Inverse folding.
């Protein structure tokens, strides 16, 4: 009884929070509302990609294809059928999300199948290639607007914040539930060792295919809502750069960590958006910044590999290095700014992907397992952090 | 007369021009404690791989309880009741000791994926049940006190015992152990010897194991088959094997004139 | 579906071969790096792109700036651009290896792949900021003294059409004569009606003749080989010969092959694997630089921007896989076949799908023959 009480309570809380978020959002301008919607969409994308990459270990970098399939399904159906639809907008969105999920799941199955024999880098390239094929095929269809794009009906002028929030929560919940039950273990086992999994009775093929289908289904549902939220879509929105952006969210958060992916998604999507606002970034500062990052990374790597003091001292050294490099960046920027050729400025928008790229490289050099590695947020983890619970690392002989 | 639990009938496998296993035949009855020995490169692990579905035999047959299982994929073999451990330990490294064993037990799961995704009571109950059964198995191999430790952090001997527990979790009729004593010190081998015997006696397992340590095999196994260059050169109880000149020649070379 | 014109097939095949040469050069870089490091050098396409920019800048510094109409072709300029691009790319490749890939060697391959993706992105989008704002540029085609085309006639003009044209020639001459005789001495802008009629008859005859000549010409098939691209093909073949010699007959080459077979064993045998790896990167990158210079200079209409290397890079990678990754002749074969396939898709009437064919080939190869055409299939030992 208590179980059901907690379950129903948490579902209600989720609904209430989403509703509250929407109400809050309505108070701000439409740009901020769209930002909130995007945050939810990216969280869904990152967590769903994490299911494929992090949890099942299938290196897929064509996730944008599933997003695109969902978006175009919703757009196409909207143009054809929405005028005759006389129901609630919410119902329509739910239908579109389901259709988007289904279509994307089919695409996920198609991608999953060649993946069965491929590992690591080969699989990555194939998934990237598949993403490109989908984009090119759609780009050549008259019925889908070719490269000119499609207008989407309905265009939800009131941003579907609550819907997106619930979608993100649903995605996180499904993944978390999988991991909390024994049913998530086959996915992890396939990631760790396919031969051993098979020997223990795990149907490796089916597991991989299910992972692809589930992950792509959520991406497709998100895509459907994306289309309605934007009001207009074209193939360029879904290129490999988007796939790589979502990948960097998963990598930053820590492959295998749902919490990590969700948080990283919110941070990594927001920074580029904020950078759009920066109109004039000093060229000299960019150079100085890149230099400083390079120095900081070398220094941090040195500390990680060669300094064997306590964790606290090392943490302090890391912080010191970061502060030091910010100072160096400014000094170099100031000096370089004196040179006329480098005195100009650049729009912040141009820096978005440079930031993504730098994040990926720095992460791999400094902490390849991501910020959260494969840990999840849980109360016992918080207790461990605060020293209230002893970590279970005894290895008695 | 009922069919033997496992029967190899002239099982052969070729890799290109190399015949790795050549017309090997033997039978295992339920409850046997069988050893498979032979010099390095004799084809022992390859034989295991054929039985467990990693390779398909080029010719000949493998039968389980009278029905052919040659060419059956590895995960179906596990469902049919044959489980194994690996020569180079293949644990799920970043999973905990307990989780490794539960993967084995998951083979017999009854609740569906959808129920798990929705976190419904049947799935939760089954997870609890699987965890309990896994803990029982860990007690048998004396690893219950490290259940939540990352399996990669265990000592070598403990990792080997964990693999055995994981294989047992699939509730097999036949347990294949590939060099379970490798890398263990004499005391650990003693304990393993007793453990394997106990598993066979109290848990009704039939066991086929590959091993290099002669003393270990001789003191544990009741029947032994010897492979050399992919062919079976001798079969019988430990005394027979110990005295068979063909076996001695295979391991030590031809006896020289006194 | 558009009608397929068999007579244009030979031309498309040859064009495909020419562009395939560029893919082959870039594919060699991918295959060699994969051979020694088992790493897909995602940033290789960007090295190619930077080679094109270096070519551009060298051409500018030699006076071939946009708007300068007086410059003529110069072999010296070409040589400088060629060598400059190769050297620059070699250095850039070595730098990337040293800074981004070497620290990753102890990590699982996925980490290296992600780093490679990061470097690739950094160069593409960083270039947008630092390289002329990313606005597309052109290398002045006049740099090449080899202007014009070679023409290889395949099928002569249809004799009937030629005869028909010849027949009309006489008529044209005759009517022209008549008109000019009648118009002699008269005011050309104020001719009497009968003379005007003669004029229009003459003009009709001329038009018919020109039509017939045109038809006859169209019935003949010849292959057009731009002279610059022939040079390109020749240079590519020379480079490949040089590479083959290096890999098969020199000590360095032997060391490269050893490292690609077994990294640790080679190291134990006293080979300095680090220097071999760096050498491989320099070699592969300079070949890409050569390809970039030629693509930028000899392919008319090539626009250079920071995304110049993305598609060629991906296609060249597919070519390397197609031929058998790690296999040098395979990369060449794969590159040529890739160029031809691409042109066949265009010839078949589906130009929009030109870029997709590469990925289709990739998936097909990986599904049915993962070792590629010339490669081997390795089995994992259990």
């Amino acid at each position: 009884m208590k179980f059901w009480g907690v379950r129903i309570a948490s579902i209600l809380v989720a609904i209430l929070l989403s509703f509250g978020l929407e109400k809050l959002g309505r108070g701000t301008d439409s740009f901020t509302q769209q930002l909130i919607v995007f945050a939810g969409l990216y969280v869904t994308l990152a967590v769903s990609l994490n299911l494929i990459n992090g949890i099942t270990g299938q290196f897929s970098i064509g996730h944008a294809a599933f997003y695109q399939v969902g978006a175009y399904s919703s757009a196409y159906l909207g143009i054809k059928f929405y005028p005759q639809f006389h129901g609630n907008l919410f119902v329509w969105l739910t239908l579109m999300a389901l259709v988007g999920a289904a279509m994307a799941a089919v695409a996920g199955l198609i991608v999953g199948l060649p993946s069965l024999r491929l590992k690591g880098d080969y699989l990555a390239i194939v998934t990237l290639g598949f993403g490109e094929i989908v984009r090119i095929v759609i780009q050549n269809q008259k019925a889908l607007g070719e490269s000119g794009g499609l207008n989407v009906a309905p265009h939800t002028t009131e941003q579907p914040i609550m819907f997106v929030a619930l979608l993100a929560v649903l995605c996180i919940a499904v993944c978390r539930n999988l991991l909390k039950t024994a049913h998530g273990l086959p996915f992890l086992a396939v990631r760790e060792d396919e031969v051993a999994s098979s020997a223990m009775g795990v149907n490796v093929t089916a597991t991989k295919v299910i992972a692809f289908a589930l992950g792509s289904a959520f991406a497709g549902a998100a895509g459907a809502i994306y289309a309605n939220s934007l009001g207009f879509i074209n193939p360029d929105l879904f290129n490999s750069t988007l796939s790589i952006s979502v990948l960097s969210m998963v990598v930053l958060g820590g492959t295998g960590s749902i919490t990590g992916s969700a948080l990283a998604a919110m941070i990594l999507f927001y920074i580029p958006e904020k950078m759009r606002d920066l109109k004039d970034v000093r060229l000299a500062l960019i150079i100085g910044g890149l230099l400083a990052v390079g120095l900081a990374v070398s220094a941090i790597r040195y500390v990680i590999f060669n300094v064997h003091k306590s964790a606290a001292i090392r943490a302090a050294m890391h912080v010191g290095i970061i502060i030091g490099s910010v100072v160096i960046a400014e000094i170099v920027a100031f000096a370089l700014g004196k040179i006329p050729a480098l005195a100009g400025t650049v729009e912040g928008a141009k820096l978005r992907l440079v930031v993504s790229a730098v994040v990926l490289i720095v992460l791999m050099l400094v902490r390849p397992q991501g910020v959260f590695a494969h840990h999840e947020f849980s109360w016992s983890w918080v207790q461990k952090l605060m020293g209230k619970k002893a970590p279970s690392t005894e290895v008695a002989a | 007369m009922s069919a033997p639990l496992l029967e190899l009938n002239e099982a052969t496998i070729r890799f290109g021009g190399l015949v790795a296993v050549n017309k090997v035949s033997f039978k295992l009855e339920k409850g046997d404690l069988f050893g498979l020995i032979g010099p390095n490169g004799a084809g022992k692990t390859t034989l295991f791989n054929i039985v467990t579905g990693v390779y398909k035999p080029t010719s000949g047959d493998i039968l389980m309880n009278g029905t052919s299982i040659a060419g059956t994929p590895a995960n179906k073999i596990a469902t049919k009741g044959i489980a194994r451990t690996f020569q180079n330990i293949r644990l799920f490294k970043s999973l905990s000791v307990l989780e490794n064993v539960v993967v084995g037990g998951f083979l017999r799961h009854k609740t569906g994926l959808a129920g798990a995704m929705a976190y419904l009571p049947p799935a939760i109950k089954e997870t609890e049940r699987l965890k309990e059964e896994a803990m029982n198995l860990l007690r048998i191999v004396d690893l219950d006190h490290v259940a939540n430790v990352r399996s990669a952090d265990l000592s070598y001997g403990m990792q080997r015992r964990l693999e055995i527990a994981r294989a047992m979790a699939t509730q097999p009729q036949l347990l294949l152990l590939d060099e379970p004593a490798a890398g263990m010190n004499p005391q650990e081998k003693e304990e393993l010897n007793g453990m394997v015997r106990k598993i066979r006696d109290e848990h009704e397992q039939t066991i086929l194991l590959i091993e290099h340590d002669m003393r270990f095999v001789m003191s544990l196994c009741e029947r032994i088959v010897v492979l050399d260059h992919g062919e079976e050169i001798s079969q019988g109880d430990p005394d027979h094997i110990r005295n068979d000149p063909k076996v001695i020649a295979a391991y030590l070379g031809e006896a020289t004139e006194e | 579906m558009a009608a397929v014109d068999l007579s244009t097939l030979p031309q498309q095949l040859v064009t495909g071969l020419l562009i395939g040469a560029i893919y082959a050069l870039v594919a060699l870089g991918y295959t060699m790096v994969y051979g020694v490091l088992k790493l897909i050098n995602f940033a290789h396409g960007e090295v190619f792109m930077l080679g094109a920019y270096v070519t551009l800048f060298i051409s500018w510094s030699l006076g071939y700036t946009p708007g300068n109409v007086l410059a003529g072709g110069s072999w010296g300029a070409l040589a400088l651009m060629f060598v400059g691009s190769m050297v620059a790319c070699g250095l850039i490749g070595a730098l990337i290896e040293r800074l981004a890939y070497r620290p990753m060697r102890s990590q699982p391959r996925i980490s290296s792949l992600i780093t490679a993706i990061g470097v690739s992105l950094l160069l593409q989008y960083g270039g947008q900021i630092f390289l002329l704002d990313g606005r597309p540029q052109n290398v002045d085609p006049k740099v090449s003294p080899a202007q014009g085309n070679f023409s290889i006639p395949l099928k002569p003009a249809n004799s009937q059409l030629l005869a028909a044209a010849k027949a009309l020639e006489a008529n044209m001459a005759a009517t022209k004569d008549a008109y000019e005789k009648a118009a002699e001495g008269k005011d050309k802008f104020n001719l009497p009606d009968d003379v005007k009629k003669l004029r229009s008859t003459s003009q009709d005859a001329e038009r018919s003749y020109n039509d017939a000549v045109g038809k006859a010409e169209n019935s003949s098939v010849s292959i057009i080989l731009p002279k610059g691209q022939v040079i390109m093909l020749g240079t590519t073949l020379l480079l490949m010969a040089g590479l083959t010699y290096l890999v098969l007959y020199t000590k360095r080459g032997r060391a490269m092959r050893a490292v690609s077979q077994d990294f640790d064993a080679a190291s134990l045998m006293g080979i300095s694997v680090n220097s071999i790896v760096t050498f491989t990167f320099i070699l592969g990158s300079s070949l890409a630089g050569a390809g970039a210079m030629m693509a930028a200079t000899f392919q008319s209409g090539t626009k250079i921007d920071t995304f110049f290397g993305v598609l060629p890079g991906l296609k060249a990678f597919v070519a390397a896989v197609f031929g058998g990754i790690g296999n040098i002749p395979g990369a060449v074969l794969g590159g040529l076949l890739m160029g031809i396939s691409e042109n066949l898709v265009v010839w078949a009437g589906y130009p929009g799908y030109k870029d997709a064919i590469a990925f289709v080939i990739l998936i097909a190869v990986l599904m049915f023959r993962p070792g590629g055409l010339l490669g081997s299939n390795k089995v994992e030992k259990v």
User: Anything to note?
Assistant: Chain A touches chain C through 47 residues (CB under 8 Å). Confidence is low (pLDDT under 50) at residues 389-397 of chain A. Chain A has 15 helices and four strands.
